[in-house]
Amino acid sequence: MHLLNLTLQKATGINCAAHGNFAGTKQQEIIASRGQTLDVIRPDPDSGKMHITHSMDMFGVIRSLSSFRLIGGTKDYIVVGTDSGKITILEYNPTKNCYDRIHQETFGKSGCRRIVPGQYIATDPKGRAVMIGAIEKQKLVFIMNRDSQARLTISSPLEAHKANTFLYNVVGVDVGFENPLFACLEMDYEEADNDPTGEAAQKSQQSLTFYELDLGLNHVVRKFTETLEERANFLIAVPGGNDGPSGILICSENYITYKNLGEQPDVRAPIPRRRHDLEDPDRGMMFVTYTAHKTKALFFFLLQTEQGDIFKVTLTSDEDMVTEIKMKYLDTIPVASSLCVLRTGFLFVACEFGNHRLYQIAHLGDADDEPEFSSNTPVEEGDTFYFRPREAKNLLMVDELQSLSPIMHCKILDLANEDTPQFYTACGTSARSTLRVLRHGLEVTEMAVSELPGNPNAVWTVRKHGDDKFDAYIVVSFVNATLVLSIGETVEEVADSGFLGTTPTIACSLLGDDALIQVYPEGIRHIRADKRVNEWKSPGKRTITKCAINERQLVISLTGGELVYFEMDQTGQLNEYTERKEMQSDVSCMALGEVPPGEARSRFLAVGLEDNTVRLLSLDPQDCLSPLSLQALPAPAESLNIVELGSKDFRRESSATSDTKERRGVLYLNIGLQNGVLLRSVLDPVTGDLSDTRTRYLGSRPVKLFRMTIQGNQAVLAVSSRAWLSYHYQNRFLLTPLSYETLEYASAFSSDQCPEGIVAIASNTLRILALDKLGTVFNETVTPLRYTPRKFVIHPTIGVMVTIETDHNAYTLEGKIQRKQEMARELLTTAEPTDQDMAKVLASEILRGDLNDVDFGAPKAGPGKWASCVRLVHPVAGKTLWVEDLPQNEAAFSVCLVKFLVRAEEEYFVLVGTAVDLQLNPRQLGGGGRLRTYRFVDDFQKLELMHVTPVDEVPHSIAAFQGRVAVAVGRSLRIYDLGKKKLLRKCESKQIPNMIVDIKTMGSRLYISDVSESVHFVKYKVKENVLSIFADDTFPRYITCSMPLDYNTIAIADKFGNFSVIRLPATVNEDHEDDPSSFWDRGLLNGASQKAESVCNFYLGETITSLQKATLIPGGSESVVYTTLSGRIGAFVPFTSREDQEFFQHLELHLRNEKPPLCGRDHLHYRSYYWPVKGVVDGDLCEQYNALDYAKQKEIAEELDRTPNEVAKKLEDIRNRGARELMCFGRGTPATLLNKIALQFIGKCVVLLQESSGVLGNLPRGPSSGTFLGSPRGPSAGSPRESAGSPRGVLGDLPRDGA
Q1: Above 50 in pLDDT, residue 952?
Q2: Residues 1010-1027: what's their mean pLDDT?
């Protein structure tokens, strides 16, 4: 078996972020680490929209990240700590839109090790040095400098090691231009390590240590150490030199402390807490993240608590001596992993879970009535300040970045009957959890919708002058009339535009600098700026059928296929070319390209004819309308478009400000066919030759093409039964569907409110649309949930979803009310008699208080407290039908949909496995487990509890099995049947070693996943009523999820980020039983005597939470789709031929050498983190081929006996394989056409296959196309299943026992 790993959507969670001027301009960017990828996020200072301008896969674990700038520089560098054992300094190159590696220094072994630096990075505020530290012992300092060419240089590492010491945090202290100083938060564990009683460990204290880099001696010395009273979690550097008093802020439990070297006394302030908070008052409060902002006049810090409250912290100083810490409550936002304040007044919040946000800082809280807390206010030890949280008023959210992290569970189904399946994902944690329905496509924002008087057939936008930034008119054509609308504050009809309104319009455009042109069936109308009109009438009774137009040229076709060419001269007059061109067939469509800047005309005219050909004609004066090339088509052309993708839009850019070199792209001829297929060919700008043709099936309707402007670049909108956008994004070509209803005609639209939009018609409505989130793979619809979703099941016929949600350390709704009543009673009983009136007011305030958990976070109830609910959802409508809250401390862990054989009717039951009073550490179960059985009632609008079955352990997994149900009760595997008062236990096995976390079934087999001992293969013997383990895995694996591929093969994923496929050998006997009393019959490694073989191993780097076999496009082939905890969605695609597998394997081998990972990690070692990579090719690495220089591409392609275009085409085809197969087997496609579009185009013509009776004729299928994920050895002649003639499924072997 051989698989190709493809990422459908990169990880969306952000681990850490840093901001700076990475592009060298005045605008600031944000560098965000998503675990393995490094993104450049650029917030638009005008609109506030965030754009990801570049994303790069590092093929390594990014452990830490920081930015620094050399003295006097205008550009920030990025220093990255990874698992490569190297420190890497990167520079963002905005011209090439890539990262350039400036330096890379090796200092240790690869991997995430305790004593290898990389976990912590701190930079000197003046950019002179970098300290990189390990969790334990080792710290290294690198000196940064410039050479004579002003290039960045890095020194050899200087050691600052200290044995038997843990490092918690490190920060560069701002000391101006004195020797660089680093502050470290450390703990010496030597005494605790030598004390067997554990008392020393309980008394161990953290210390604050300052390390000084002596630039004169080139040496690091330990300057000062001080023991800390409280346990601290991070340090903050205070601006120094001429900007502030220097020193550091220590954030610890319940307190924030200012410290500095010298005579400065410590300044200490308690962390404020919420008034009437439901949390345990004895539970400590901590700051979890911070950001600092510094200007010439002031500096301040924004610190966030673990509840999400943001405080503005300032320091009061007197002659460089800090005298006071002031804190003021600003607002409450979701808990973040990183905060970044930009000079434009934006606050970027990289949320721990859920969507990342960009806020506009409207106020800094200086003028409001919020109390300001001071360290000078006398407070008793252990007491603190209190504040009232409120709705946000200082921070205004302006944009969001989609984040699915964490994806807890996912299923891929087409419940909405949209032909393409949807991803139903349970995301998030606590009160901000959501159920998201993901659809492949760009999100479309509807700016305006208005009805029209009739059904239009076309729409255009026109500007009045060539240098206008925005469009002036929307022209709508009907069957017998033309409507002209002006664009301004409102869109309204105009009558003095000069357009003829009593006839339909074929095309209209701006001609030259200030003239308009209208083409209609009887002629051409040339409208000058002074409203003079020139008319050209079609000869005789012939009418104009098609036309092509740009800002200087016009070509029309008359009835019968005659072409007439017009060109504008320097005076603005439109002149007809003397000769006309007779085509061999009727013209079905035409296209002209844009006039390149500095030239007088576009050189090519593309003409589509009814004889299934497209012809390229020259428009040069020497050989005007002479043929250049021809391309045969499998179906008539519906629409043509010549566009230069990857270039700036000449029409929207003024020639004075645009750079010609920047605009150079690749010239493409796009051909939309009447059978719904889009062809894209490269058009040679010199000879007019067509090459490298790509095909894509878009829909069942004919494809119409329209030129658009996206982010200042040219793009193509293709409209079929679904609209698709073809555009360049981050140096990649993308063809993405729009998640919107069917459009009939469209045009580019630009106005003050919508600079880059689309105006389109659908039935009798005019719509103005905007595309904001370019580059996104999925758009989403969101249904809010109450607690963290654990699992869900979907009814196979009705489509309703049952979810279970569970939170630890949380209150139920009833538990919150009880806690408030408890607090109110406690307040009244402890109050003095004289304070009873005040106590009653406060008690009623407590009872009335109700903070929204979504905005302010759910209160922590304490360890051992659980909140859970069962929810019935209509996922397509996004509506909750029914919710049942489970009692406090009863937690739901598993859910299953079962159809019991004892019930004659076709009725599905819902089983929910719960645990009561579960304590995690030390683990104990106070109230046992429960199996709650529900049935659907009220026409599937709610669930009714039938009965509750007590069990003695936590039921972590439930699965339907042969009309009964298999339940994992701790380490026991049991089979239950339905009874009247409870479930009836029929069979039990206690042979699983630790704890069962997942059960999958097929036929008479059960695939049991142990928490740490991989998969056990279990056979249920009906006659003996026995569950027998007949095989297991050789390796211990900490399984998170599994998916049977066929009867003998199962795909599994573990919590360390590994994906594996294991298979039972053909010699396995499932009826074999071990004799436990016999020493000689004991299995290998104390397990079963028969072992599964490892077929595939691949390290993904992220914990996989779900695996599923799915067909992502109708008619496509099945893939194994996975989702991860960090929000990544990907697929393992099986190769259908040995030729493909060998091609990608060799390409991967070349790219490992020619484009090694940017941060120095060896790709082969990375993908073999735990087990050597086997049977899987890394498609993400193969797709880096397109980012190579052309010389490297050519060199690799020659090694593979192909051209660079063929390699790029192969990469595109493997990703779009499902689409290509749909193109062959899609709806409405004649069988005789399938042969014509099976082969790719060669040179100028398409080689058409001969018609045959078969769907694909006699095309070779490849050696392994019959068994998609079948055995790598091929079908064995001795296999009993093969010899018996049993059928083969799409995913290999079907089960034998009637499954």
Answers
A1: yes
A2: 94
Q: What is the mean pLDDT of the chain?
A: 88
DSSP 8-state code for residue 850: -
Cβ distance 541 to 528 under 8 Å?
no
Task: Please state, in angstroms and rounded to a whole number, the distance separating the CA atoms of residues 165 and 183.
Answer: 15
Mean pLDDT of 189-206: 91
SS3 assignment, position 1282: helix
pLDDT at 282: 83
Least confident of 16-30, 574-588, 1086-1100, 1261-1275: 1261-1275
Tell me the average pLDDT across 154-179.
Answer: 94
Q: Kindly list the strands in the beta sheet with 890-898, ordered across the sheet, starting from the edge strand earlier in the chain.
A: 890-898, 909-916, 929-937, 942-951
Block residue for tokens 């992502």: 1112
pLDDT for 1262 equals 37
Specify the range with the lowest mean pLDDT, choosing from 512-516, 1087-1091, 1200-1204: 1087-1091
Planar angle of CA 1123, 1221, 1274, nearest 5 degrees: 75
Is residue 321 classed as helix, strand or coil in its secondary structure? strand
Distance CA 233, CA 541 (A): 86
d(CA 75, CA 69) in angstroms, rounded, equals 6
Give the up-direction half-sphere exposure of residue 556: CA atoms within 13 A in the CB hemisphere.
Answer: 28
Distance CA 82, CA 65 (A): 9
- What gap in Å lies between CA 571 and CA 252, rounded to an integer? 77
- Look at residue 649 and give its three-state secondary structure: coil
User: Which of 1071, 1017, 1068 is CA-nearest to residue 1044?
Assistant: 1017
What integer pLDDT is reported at residue 1270 of this predicted model? Answer: 39
Place of tokens 């779900």: 1106
Rounded Cα distance, 228 and 745, in Å: 70
Both structure tokens of 568: 């504008």
Q: Which amino acid is at 698?
A: L
Cβ count within 10 A of residue 796: 10
DSSP 854-872: HHH-PPP--TT-EEEEEEE
pTM here? 0.89
> Using CA atoms, how far apart are residues 901 and 186, in angstroms rounded to an integer?
63
CA of 254: how far to CAs of 187, 230, 232, 284, in Å?
19, 9, 10, 6
Tokens representing residue 211 in the block? 């390390």
Cα separation, 1280 vs 1283, whole angstroms: 5
Strand ordering across the sheet containing 1026-1032 = 996-1002, 1005-1010, 1015-1021, 1026-1032
Q: Which two tokens stand for residue 1223?
A: 């193109």
Gap between the terminal Cα atoms of the chain: 24
For the beta carbon of residue 607, count every other beta carbon within 10 angstroms.
27
Q: Where are the beta strands (DSSP E) in 388-430?
A: 395-401, 407-413, 422-427
How confident is the model at residue 253, as a pLDDT? 93
User: Which two tokens mark 222?
Assistant: 């330990």
123 neighbors 79 (Cβ within 8 angstroms): yes
d(CA 1029, CA 1033) in angstroms, rounded, equals 11
Other beta carbons less than 10 A from residue 67's beta carbon: 19
Beta bridge partners of 143: 129
CA distance 1168 to 1211: 24
Quote the pLDDT of residue 1113: 79
1296 Cβ contact partners less than 8 Å away, ≥ 6 residues apart = 1003, 1047, 1281, 1286
822-857 pLDDT, tens digit each: 989 988 888 888 888 888 888 888 888 888 999 999
Question: Does residue 807 register a pLDDT over 70?
Answer: yes
The yes-or-no verdict on residue 1251 having pLDDT over 70 is no
Q: What is the DSSP code string of 695-760?
A: EEE--SSPPEEEEEEETTEEEEEEESSSEEEEEEETTEEEEEEEES---SEEEEE--SS-SSEEEE
Q: 1236, 819, 1260, 1137: which is closest to 2 by C-alpha?
A: 1137
- What is the number of other CB atoms lying within 10 angstroms of the CB of residue 457? 14
Question: Beta strands 62-68 and 77-82: pairing type?
Answer: antiparallel
